[in-house]
Specification:
Elements: E1 2-6, E2 9-13, E3 18-22, H1 26-39, H2 44-50, H3 55-68, H4 89-100, H5 106-115, H6 122-132
Antiparallel strand pairs: 1-2, 2-3
Helix pairs in contact: 1-2, 2-3, 4-5, 5-6
Length: 154
């Protein structure tokens, strides 16, 4: 097996023909990296650098591949899968407090929720306000930081 790196991917050639793996094929490129690292004379660290990974990531992918197969090579969404702090009852309470007192700030609503026993940050309250369009009228930041000079024309 011969591997040739090109600008838009990698070409793998054998006795009977060749196969091109595009650089946008994430799983194919990771699998090829593992094949080269395990079957070629270059060290896994060198092969990993050639594909834009570090040696540690190479071994992480190798372990995942050995345990779960090629499906484990696909990237997954990182971070929380749901808005667990802002979902359900907390979200309803934020909206409720905002409609009860339209002038209440993010800090005030957040404090009321914390007094009611909900663990939520002011930033999460702000995100709910933004998601549902509950900002105060006239509180946009349009034009902020831009000043007109005296006697200037529009």
């Amino acid at each position: 097996m011969e591997v040739r790196h090109e600008a838009d991917g990698v070409v793998v050639s054998g006795r009977a023909g060749s196969l091109k793996i595009g650089s946008d094929d994430e799983v194919g490129m990771k699998l090829l990296m593992l094949l080269e690292g395990e079957c070629d004379s270059d060290s896994p660290g060198e092969v990993a650098r050639r594909y834009g990974y570090c040696k540690q990531r190479y071994y992480q992918l190798l372990t995942r591949y050995q345990q779960q197969g090629t499906e484990a090579l696909a990237s997954r969404k990182r971070g929380p899968k749901t808005n667990y702090r802002r979902g359900g009852e907390v979200g309803r309470q934020i909206i409720r407090y905002r409609y009860l007192d339209p002038e209440a700030s993010v800090e005030v609503v957040g404090q009321k929720l914390r007094q009611d026993g909900f663990a939520i940050s002011n930033r999460s309250v702000f995100r709910v306000f933004a998601d549902y369009g509950l900002q105060k009228k006239g509180s946009t930041n349009v034009g902020r930081g831009r000043r007109r000079a005296k006697n200037s024309c529009l």
